[in-house]
Amino acid sequence: MSPLLQGKRIDNWIGGARRAPVNGEYLESIDPSVGKAWIEIPNGDAQDVDAAVAAAKSAFAGSWREMAAMQRAALLRAVAVEIMKHAEELATIECRDNGKPIREAIPGDLPSVAEMMNYWGGQADKIHGSTVEISPLSHNFVRHEPLGVVGIIVPWNSPLAILGAKVGAALAAGNCVVLKPAEQAAASILTIAECFDAAGFPPGVVNVVSGLGEVVGDALVRHPEVRKIAMTGSTDTARVISERAAPTLKQLSFELGGKSPNIFFADADMEIAVAGASTNAIFTGGAGQTCVAGSRLLIHTSIYDELIEKITAHVAESVRLGNALDHSTSMGPIAFDRQYEKVKSYIELGQKEGAEVVFGGRFGPENFEGREDAAELAEGYFVSPTLFRGATNDMRVCREEIFGPVTCAIPFEDDDEALAIANDTNYGLACGVWTRDLKRAHRFIRDIQAGAVWINTYRRLHWAAPFGGFKESGYGRDSGLESLRGYQQTKTAWVDLA
Ligand code: NAI
Ligand code: MG
């Protein structure tokens, strides 16, 4: 088996082949564990997008649309096998590029991406329409047809997992896709394209064009032949995309940021709540760079000090910062320099706003004093897990998405106050509730304004369960049968029998 990634440069994937960007320009992709460039990716432009959309359009008309549904299903299952063949390599590429720890990606992300392809393979030959009984003199039936060419815009935090959810559904629905990976971590998506080829997908069904959001992403958003944009990323970029997609009336789905409340009541099981507040919710492998990060800890006043103390001990004991490719690393760096500066600035801001650092607030080399690998990691973008206490929900650190290992402990007195604070946010992605009281749990399930609610657990996601936001956390869903409809259009047929 030849390695998927050879050499120091990886090109776009268009029409079933590697293609250099027309303008000949490349960007350096940085390994954030050491702050050094490790591979070049295309800095493409609208010309590459045009070529990719043309390839996708021709694949759609030429083969994909004509193929039996069972065969599309078989191809999706075959790509799952190809992905698992290359799982370790794909994980290594992604972790090197974005700093996610390899010890999470190999047993976690990669098998999940393969399972997503299996799941969508299972759906691809179960696209059912319906008949509508209107009159014996008319046969009325409903078909769920693909849109044609779909543009998929992916961020840098979990590129392959996000690809799995969106591309799986788009292909199962019968579309061809053009992917735009993030300029900060494009290598894993550029690489995985070859798995689709090896599985036997016709050329042009899956294409990847790398470059800047404002250039390649923008060209995809404005392209008249692209019928839908599915994007994961920031709320601000989603607003820009919405405006620019308006002239061509594209369908849109957005999975955006969050400021998710993780709520701890006095009757919570403390044993599990401690990890649920910290290492499972925000001080995770991706260093809090996850849309569902539990970035607001709402804690009942009666257990406020106790829980904070226990979290402090647990984090000190269980979080090990380090190079993402080192199997002993449990939390990696921030993915790139601009994001690193953003996280640092919020840690300073929280202190200015009057919150108190319980632990953390250390950056870069400070985290590695006395360690053997200190010199190597000195240029990496590391931030240690950081907890603020004495935070109030009007502080900017409690309202704005930081997207790093930073969480704020906000005290509350009773259920009404907890719910009010939880919902007092522009976001609405996720919520955790820790209680043994069934009625209380159900009240929060009903009244929280968020697309996901976890009771006595946190950050549980599955390809079969719909996932997405309320309010400014987005619209449309990834995963689950519901997401399939987002990649289809409904046609009603009338056959006159009179
Ligand atoms: P972003 O939303 O700008 O980037 C996400 C994707 O959109 C990237 O592929 C980017 O190239 C593309 N993009 C950017 N501008 C575009 C445009 N005009 N047209 C089309 N595509 C465009 O997010 P960014 O700047 O990487 O991160 C900023 C913040 O966004 C983070 O600090 C975090 O708060 C949030 N974010 C949330 C994510 C999530 O999982 N929901 C993922 C990444 C970022
Ligand atoms: Mg990188």
The residue-averaged pLDDT reads 97
Relative strand content: 15-25%
Number of domains: 2
Q: If you compute it from the alpha carbons, what radius of gyration comes out, rounded to the nearest whole angstrom?
A: 23 Å
Instruction: Report the span from N to C terminus.
Output: 63 Å
Spatial arrangement of strands, main beta sheet:
14-15-16-13-12-17-18
CATH level-3 fold name of the largest domain: Aldehyde Dehydrogenase, Chain A, domain 1
CATH superfamily of the largest domain: Aldehyde Dehydrogenase, Chain A, domain 1
Structure classification: alpha/beta
The number of helical elements comes to: 16
- Number of E-state strands: 20
Q: How would you sum up the global shape?
A: globular
Write the layout of secondary structure elements.
Layout: E1 12-14, E2 17-19, E3 26-31, E4 36-42, H1 46-64, H2 69-85, H3 87-98, H4 102-124, E5 130-135, E6 138-146, E7 149-153, H5 159-172, E8 176-180, H6 187-199, E9 206-208, H7 213-222, E10 226-232, H8 235-245, E11 251-255, E12 261-264, H9 270-277, E13 296-300, H10 304-318, H11 337-352, E14 356-359, H12 374-377, E15 386-389, H13 396-399, E16 406-412, H14 415-423, E17 430-434, H15 438-447, E18 452-455, E19 474-475, H16 480-485, E20 488-496
Parallel strand pairs: 7-8, 7-10, 8-9, 10-11, 12-13, 12-17, 13-16, 15-16, 17-18
Antiparallel strand pairs: 1-2, 3-4, 5-6, 6-20, 11-19, 14-15
1,4-dihydronicotinamide adenine dinucleotide is lined by residues 153-157, 180, 182-183, 213-214, 217-218, 221, 232-234, 237, 240-241, 255-257, 291, 339, 342, 401, 403.
